Amino acid sequence: MKIELPQGRFFLASESSDPVILVAGGRPPNEKWLKQVAQCYPVWAIDRGIDVCRSAAVIPEILVGDADSGAVEAWQWAESHHVPIVRHSIDKDLTDLQLTLQELGSRYPGASALLTGGMGRRFDHAYSNVFSLQESKLWDVHAIGLVDEAEALFLVEGGQAFRAELTQIPIAVSLMPLSAVCDNVNSRGVHWPLQEATLAMKHPGGICNRLAEGSQSVSVSLGHGLLGVYFCWRESGL
Predict the structure, then answer these.
(1) Contact criterion met (CB below 8 Å) for 205 and 199
(2) Domain boundaries, the chain
(3) Which CATH superfamily is domain 155-232 in?
(4) CATH fold label, 2-149
(5) Are 115 and 133 within 8 A, CB to CB?
(6) Are strands 181-188 and 217-221 parallel, antiparallel or unpaired?
(7) How far is 3 from 162, CA to CA, in rounded Å?
(8) Which pLDDT value is given to residue 122?
(9) Distance between CA 14 and CA 142 in Å, rounded?
(10) How far is CA 209 from CA 89, 129, 171, 198, 200, in A?
(11) Is the predicted pLDDT of residue 204 greater than 90, yes or no?
């Protein structure tokens, strides 16, 4: 799978289809960035994510949520553009993101999803978003990660290979274990590469690396576990 973003091209060893961009209600992505991404991939809005879509003039294919945080005007804008709406009760057991993943998997089994608007603002929401994506296979969805113009976190499973060909150079590259242990971790293109290393969630030793001198690409693989490959392009305003 190849993912085209303004920051570069990102490759995952997967046969999944092109991703659906899920726009949530966390820190909003830059409007120009979102417009550019929306030219390549379908967009779904999650509750307050419809505010972001409206501001960027990006009409989503569907809107899912309980309408507890999105502006009334934005929901009316969606209705005026005949966007299908899947409305849920405020009193529910799943988050709006989890319900959207469930909806995506029911409509397009095996679909891939890339979340934007999923970081920033409240930490509990960002935490829930990361681990909701991690369990997306429950709904037959392959979650790729979270991304906007400032940050990205790609989810790489054991046995997978990941590569980034960057047109914008990040200020930091980190490897973040999202399972208790990630073993046989290999990384290239960074200042401190790893070879057959073990990274543990309780001792995150792969934080705050950078590209090797002259490098514009990063490759990562691992044997077992779930690893977050993180890029930061901008710290201000996070």
Answers:
(1) yes
(2) 2-149, 155-232
(3) Thiamin pyrophosphokinase, thiamin-binding domain (2.60.120.320)
(4) Rossmann fold (3.40.50)
(5) yes
(6) antiparallel
(7) 11
(8) 83
(9) 10
(10) 43, 24, 9, 16, 16
(11) no
Measured distance CA(130)–CA(126) in Å, rounded: 6
Q: What percent of the chain has pLDDT over 90?
A: 83
SS3 68: coil
- pLDDT digits 0-9 by tens, 115-131: 999 988 788 889 999 99
Percent of the chain with pLDDT over 70: 100
Contacts of 209 (CB under 8 A, 6+ apart): 172, 173, 174, 175, 187, 190, 191, 192
Q: pTM of the prediction?
A: 0.94
Contact (Cβ atoms closer than 8 angstroms) between residue 62 and residue 75:
no
Q: How far apart are CA 214 and CA 72, in angstroms?
A: 49
Query: Distance between CA 68 and CA 171 in Å, rounded?
Result: 36
If DSSP codes are grouped into helix, strand and coil, which group holds residue 131? helix
In the DSSP assignment, the letter for residue 143 is E
**Contacts within 8 Å (CB) and 24+ apart, 41-47:** 41/114, 44/20, 44/100, 44/104, 45/78, 45/83, 46/22, 46/96, 46/97, 46/100, 46/117, 47/96
